[in-house]
Hints:
- 0% of the residues lie in helices and 51% in strands.
- The chain has no helices and 6 strands.
- The radius of gyration is 13 Å and the shape is globular.
- The chain has one domain (19-101): Jelly Rolls, CATH 2.60.120.10.
- Strands 1, 2, 3, 4, 5 and 6 form a 6-stranded antiparallel β-sheet that branches.
Amino acid sequence: MQVLQGAAAFSVPDGKPSHYEEHLRVPDLSVGTYCIPVGGKDGQQPHTEDEIYVVVSGRGWLEAESGSTDVGPGSVVFVPAGEPHRFTDVTKDLAVLVVFGPAEYSRAGAPT
């Protein structure tokens, strides 16, 4: 067992539009917290791994090729590998637990 300290806590360094922090990485999955402040921008690109987003706090929209949805505490959304998506219209500081399967970048290598 491993307790993931700091997982799902809102944290964005000053001046950053968003922040991602990984808490766990094993071959078959990785877990991290993605935070976007009110008015912040989500600049992520499609991933080569499947993702599950669990919204812990905040409010905004998740837009994807297959549709869009309002998200808030308790929202759980699956985004398949390769589907373009991003959080928009963040009206309350957003903290999202992100689960990648398999681990983020394991199919494509680390980002450049």
